[in-house]
Design brief:
The complex is a heterodimer of chains A (about 120) and B (about 140).
Chain A (H helix, E strand, L loop, with lengths): L2 H8 L2 E4 L10 E4 L3 H7 L5 E4 L4 H10 L3 E4 L7 H10 L2 E4 L4 H10 L3 E2 L13
Parallel strand pairs in A: 2-3, 2-6, 3-4, 4-5
Antiparallel strand pairs in A: 1-5
Chain B lengths: L4 E7 L9 H12 L4 H21 L3 E7 L3 E8 L7 H4 L9 H5 L7 H8 L2 E7 L3 E9 L2
Antiparallel strand pairs in B: 1-2, 2-3, 3-5, 4-5
The chains are: A alpha/beta (about 120), B alpha+beta (about 140).
Bound molecules: adenosine-5'-triphosphate and magnesium ion.
Adenosine-5'-triphosphate binds next to helix 2 and helix 5 of chain B.
């Protein structure tokens, strides 16, 4: 799917990057824990989050993410949007909760980033 | 070996607002040198993690980038408080981060293991009451 498709599926509003909506997206991750995003995400993906502080954009910058989706209708400050724009990020906001946003996108075929797990289901390394 | 670049960035304790600005500048400099892709991403992530640790856990310190023809080096050196138990600190999930750091999305105890995973060479030295020094190397090509 493309970012445009995500906008449609999530009934989202585009805050930054209107001209880049035809970019393809293959995977997404959803987290409010930037520590985890930094530790597990290693491909150019989409971050779905409810956190709107400047570190969400900084984390995206370090990882070269391409799109940020804010849930529950959250809109970050002008300052944060400006730095997102400088980096060439696409930023959209949806009224859906994180759970619902993920479900809607998954149903349309989007999948999570592959996460290497060192343990099996019994918790053994 | 010839050093191509050396830049130092002072990092202040609890300066949450500008935390990450040194790493953003480091990333810019490396890009200008034509360093891209996987190495650039690994250096950027490790640099951001170590810079955040200076802000969140240290009494202040300095992050230094050096680029040599064969590798990129990051050194973080701080003025304390030092880490009492290094093997505990290196464990995934162990954190002493305060509420402010946690409210920003950090403090999961993932940073040090993540640096170690991303760097080709990782060394940490720490003494309580003196400080912590972390040296990371990333091979080029
Ligand atoms: N420069 C430092 N000075 C003093 N203590 C440190 C320093 N760096 C790390 N520590 C200690 O080591 C612990 C683990 O660090 P680590 O980066 O792995 O996790 P964190 O910073 O707590 O959380 P995260 O990195 O996931 O946001 C910290 O909680 C802190 O107690
Ligand atoms: Mg950390």
């Amino acid at each position: 799917m493309t970012i445009q498709d995500m906008v449609r599926v999530l009934n989202a509003r585009v805050l930054i990057g209107e001209e880049k909506l035809d970019m393809p997206v293959y995977t997404a991750c959803c987290s409010d824990l930037m520590s985890d995003v930094l530790a597990f995400v290693d491909e150019k993906t989409v971050l779905i989050t409810g956190l709107t502080n400047p570190h969400v954009v900084r984390t995206s910058e370090m990882l070269d993410l391409k799109c940020l989706v804010f849930v529950r209708g959250k809109v970050p400050s002008e300052e944060i949007l400006d730095s997102a724009e400088e980096q060439g990020l696409v930023v959209i906001t949806t009224k859906a909760t994180a759970f619902t946003a993920c479900g809607l996108l998954y149903a349309e075929g989007l999948r999570g980033v592959p996460v290497p797990l060192e343990w099996d289901m019994e918790g053994k390394k | 070996m010839t050093e191509l670049i050396r830049s130092s960035y002072p990092v202040e304790t609890a300066d949450y607002a500008s935390a990450g600005s040194a790493s953003a500048d480091i990333k810019r400099k490396l890009k200008q040198l034509g360093i891209t892709g996987d190495v650039l991403r690994r250096v950027s992530v490790a640099s951001y993690e170590v810079e955040l640790n200076l802000v969140i856990h240290s009494l202040g310190g300095e992050l230094t980038l050096s680029v040599f023809p064969e590798y990129v080096q990051l050194v973080s050196a701080d003025r304390g408080p030092g880490i009492p138990d290094l093997s505990l600190a290196m464990r995934e999930g162990w954190s002493t981060a305060n509420d402010e750091a946690r409210s920003l999305g950090f403090g999961a105890g993932m940073g040090l293991p993540n640096m170690k995973r991303n760097a080709d060479d990782f060394d940490i030295q720490s003494e309580v009451g003196v400080g912590t020094t972390i040296t990371m190397k990333f091979k080029l090509a």
